[in-house]
Amino acid sequence: MKLVNNSFERVEDLKYLGKTLTIQNSVQKEIKSRLSSGTACYHLVQNLLSSSWLSKNLKIRIYRIIVLSVVLYLCENWPLSLMEERRLKVYENKVLRRIFGPSGTR
Fold first, then answer.
1. Residues 53, 60 contacting (CB under 8 angstroms)
2. What is the DSSP letter of 27?
3. Counts for the chain of helices (H) and strands (E), in that order
């Protein structure tokens, strides 16, 4: 595409201001990227979340503030299908099981 002596390359998806934009306006790549970022965040605070010194309520607050906020950043305009909603719920349950499972209840 050319516009006043400038040419623009056509791409399938583009990362802009932390958000993945696609030609099909699909959020699947965005969700996959956010879940990866959330997992990386979880691993950074894993020792804190598995500590026996912290209460369950405090662990949930830490999870919501640190991990969940990364996953759901700018999600207000995501057009979610049932499959994508389920994927987010499965991720949340998986992380909560890691926090409160056998290693998190010492």
1. no
2. S
3. 5, 4
Alpha-carbon span 25 to 48, nearest angstrom: 37
Q: What is the pLDDT of residues 43-76, one digit of tens each?
A: 999 999 988 899 999 999 999 999 999 999 888 8
pLDDT in tens, 3-15: 677 777 777 777 7
Closest CA to 104 of 61, 63, 41, 46: 46
C-alpha 60/C-alpha 31 separation (Å) is 22
Under a CB-based contact definition with an 8 Å cutoff, are residues 63 and 49 in contact? yes
pTM (2 decimals)?
0.73
